[in-house]
Amino acid sequence: MEVPYYVRAAWELAREYATRNPARIAQERGIKLLYLPFRSIYGVGAYLADCKLIAVNSNLEEEEQNLVIAHELAHFELHPEFSVYFVLSHSLFYTRWEYEANMFAAALRIGEDLARYEPAIRELAAGRVDKFIKALGARIEDN
Asked: Is residue 47 part of a domain?
C-alpha cells in the first residue's frame, strides 16, 4: 500500500529534526507559538506579514496542545500556497485540507507505527476534531 504524501511529509519532518515533538519542530522552522485561553477553539495558524504563528488554547492538556500544533504545522507544510489563517475548532471538518492536516498530525505524533492504528485514525481524522484529539492524545508519548 502506498503511503500518502501527507503521511510521508510528517515522517520526513520527524526524521529531519530527530523528534516527533511538533512544538520543537515548529520553533526550529521559525514558527512562533503562542498559548492563549481560547473559549471555543483549539488553535489557529496564521501568516502575519512574514511571520508564521500558531496560537494554541492554553486550557488544553499538553498532548492535546501538541496535536493542535501538529495539525496547524501541517497546514503550513502541506498548504503553503494559501496565505489565510486556519482555525481549529470543535466543529466538524470534512474538507480535504482538514483531513490531511489531521492525518499529518497523527503520523507525526505516532510515527511509523501509524499502520497499526490506521483504520481508526482515518475514521477519526475524517470526523470531529475534538474526538480525534482526545482519542489520539491518550495514546502518544514524546520522542
From this structure: yes
The C-alpha cell that represents 68 in the structure block: 493542535
7: Cα separation from own chain's centroid: 12
Strand partners, 46: 53
Q: Is the pTM of this model over 0.90?
A: no
3-state helix, strand, coil in the chain (%, to 5): 55, 20, 30
Of 60, 61, 56, residue with least CA distance to 44:
56
Q: For position 123, which CATH number holds?
A: 1.10.10
Give the residue numbers spanning the domain of 20.
Answer: 5-137
Q: How many domains does the structure of the chain reveal?
A: 1
| 65 falls within a domain | yes
Residue-wise pLDDT for 91-140, tens only, equals: 444 578 888 888 898 889 888 777 776 766 676 666 655 565 666 665 55
Give a yes or no: residue 112 inside a domain: yes
Calculate the alpha carbon distances from 82 to 46, 98, 115 in Å.
10, 13, 30
Upper half-sphere CA count for residue 28 (Cβ side, 13 Å): 12
